[in-house]
Write a structure and sequence with these properties.
This protein is α+β, with helices and mostly antiparallel strands. It has helices spanning 2-21, 106-113, 120-126, and strands at residues 41-51, 54-65, 68-74, 80-87, 90-95, 100-103, 137-140, 146-151, 154-164, 167-177, 180-191. An 11-stranded antiparallel sheet has the order 6-5-4-3-2-1-11-10-9-8-7, sandwiched between helices. The longest helix is centred in the first third of the chain and has 20 residues, at 2-21.
Length: 192
């Protein structure tokens, strides 16, 4: 537990430093402070990815609104790895060296540039503890929390929930597909 406390404190310090000097940043806050239940949120946490024999771990900050996403992926030392923007017109991914790529889906673009897929199209529902629209297999616990879902070629297992603003929201989850395993630990939720 002490290790995660140190990591959390380090992450907070790194996020403050990054806000002052990183070239990959979130756009300024705009709009209303919609409640989390309306699927407009900012979350920050940790991400770990195992893909074939490669692995990556770092930090993630994600602002989701109805028709747009902005995701920052940071290295364990807080350096910008990628900035992903999704809107109705498509997806762009910018790396720390200023190179930009465009594609129709986040899955395709992250697989091509980062080497592993990030399924934002479904994940923005899954992080709320809800299945995305469409075909899904689900399992709930005795309190009605989603603990397992299979959708869009992914298996999502929820390993923790936390009360946030009157809602029980996932605090950790593991996503797997045949070629990749992604562990997401959500440290902070806020309205967008």
């Amino acid at each position: 537990m002490r290790f995660f406390s140190i990591i959390r404190k380090s992450a907070i310090c790194l996020l403050f430093l990054l806000s002052a000097c990183a070239s990959l940043t979130l756009p300024p806050e705009t709009g209303t402070n919609a409640p989390l239940g309306e699927h407009s949120y900012v979350l920050s946490g940790r991400i770990g990815v195992i893909h074939n024999k490669n692995s990556f771990s770092g930090f993630l900050t994600w602002r989701h609104r109805r028709n747009e996403d902005v995701v920052l992926i940071l290295s364990p030392l807080g350096q910008g790895v990628a900035r992903i923007e999704r809107s109705n017109s498509g997806v762009t991914l910018e790396t720390a060296d200023g190179k930009k790529w465009v594609a129709a889906s986040t899955d395709v673009l992250t697989r091509r540039i980062l080497g592993w897929p990030l399924p934002l199209e479904g994940l923005h529902y899954w992080v709320m503890g809800q299945p995305a629209p469409g075909h899904v297999l689900t399992r709930f616990d005795h309190e009605g929390h989603l603990v397992h879902l299979e959708q869009q070629g992914w298996v999502v297992d929820y390993t923790g929930y936390r009360r946030q603003g009157g809602m029980m929201l996932p605090s950790s989850m593991i996503l797997t597909c045949p070629e990749v395993r992604v562990k997401l630990i959500i440290d902070r939720w806020a309205p967008a």
